[in-house]
Amino acid sequence: MRTVELAGLTASAEGLGCMGMSSVYGAADWDGSVATIRRALDLDVTLIDTADAYGAGHNEVLVGRAVAGRRDEALIATKAGMDFSTGRGKVVLRGTPDYLKRACDASLLRLGVDVIDLYYLHRVAPDVPLEESVGALAELVEEGKVRRIGLSEVTGDQLRAAHRVHPVAAVQSEYSLWTRDPETGVAAAARELGVALVAYSPLGRGFLTGTVDVTGLAADDGRRRLPRFSEEAARGNAAITEAVAEVARAKGVTAGQVALAWVAAQSDRLGIPVVPIPGTKRVRWLEENAAALDVPLTEADLDRLDGLAAGVVGGRY
Fold it and tell me: Residue limits of the NADP-dependent oxidoreductase domain (predicted)?
């Protein structure tokens, strides 16, 4: 597995998103998820991504147990600032320094570690100046509880403002063949400042693999609430998955591998490290995803895939 530098931290060029192991995508599988995280480390997939909001802390506990005894092999990224404790499906964005510092202490405890490698502000709270929130993260670095800081789903101006308070190692945003928002927003600022883009949902929440039947999603699957996963939108978006599948068939690989290879290939075009963090709770899919970075895409492939986003039916949310 290739590596990238995140402001002095060496991370794998592809990471593992752990959210779905605890929430959003159906029932949790503790043993299977632990095995998947440990297999990731075996494959040198070292960037392990979690958050305190995933499963109301369950996910951090899971990650902590999975990396126990192998802490030096993992680069643990977690987040704070999205509070779901007010009730199911209701989120309050919190960014006060006191809240973030207490959240960090709680995350350290759940993870069972002495320091968090990469600590993100999960979302910018509308009622707290961003500089105050970032200042709190900077103090956590000074206290030795955090190594590097990151931001999630921010604009270019927000990234610049935060970076003036403390260097930002990475911005995490949804980015894939069918979600290209960072290209017209935060990417330019990230390039100016030397900040990496960590791409979540690089498989379009599974849709780009061509294996998702939207009519068969479990009742508690969070994708049921997303416009792109309605039956009507899925019919319209089938042309996108077929185009990805055609490229995959020509190469003897899977559609998911092509989608991931496309995301990783955008590093050169955007001029910043782009690190996809596909999520899975199964070793089988982890191994398939990890092999995706070895899939060669020609200029013709990239040109063909580049225009698919223009045909997307349905918004992100």
Answer: 15-308
* Domain that includes residue 74, residue range: 3-205+256-296
Domain containing 107 — which CATH number? 3.20.20.100
Helix (H, G, I), strand (E, B) or coil at 128: coil
Quick check: is 187 in a domain?
yes
92 inside domain: yes
Provide the annotated active-site residues: 54
**Alpha-carbon torsion 122, 62, 55, 175, what sign?**
positive
Residue at 224 is within a domain:
no
At 207, phi and psi to the nearest 5? -60, -35
Distances in whole angstroms, Cα of residue 190 to Cα of each of 118, 235, 286, 298, 309: 17, 35, 28, 26, 22
Give me the number of domains the chain comprises: 1
Phi, psi of 75 (to 5 degrees): -110, 105
Residue 102 CA neighbour count, 13 Å, CB half: 8
How many whole angstroms separate alpha carbon 92 and alpha carbon 273?
31
From first to last of its 317 residues, the chain has per-residue pLDDT tens of 999 999 999 999 999 999 999 987 777 899 999 999 999 999 999 999 999 999 999 999 999 999 999 999 999 999 999 998 887 668 999 999 999 999 999 999 999 999 999 999 999 999 999 999 999 999 999 999 999 999 999 999 999 999 999 999 999 999 999 999 999 989 999 999 999 999 999 999 999 999 999 999 988 888 998 999 999 999 999 999 999 999 999 999 999 999 999 999 999 999 999 999 999 999 999 999 999 999 999 999 999 999 999 999 999 98
Q: What is d(CA 135, CA 117) in angstroms, rounded to the nearest whole number? A: 17
User: Where do we find the tokens 């993992």?
Assistant: 74
From the CB of residue 305, how many other CB atoms can be counted at a distance below 10 Å? 20
One-letter amino acid at 287 equals E
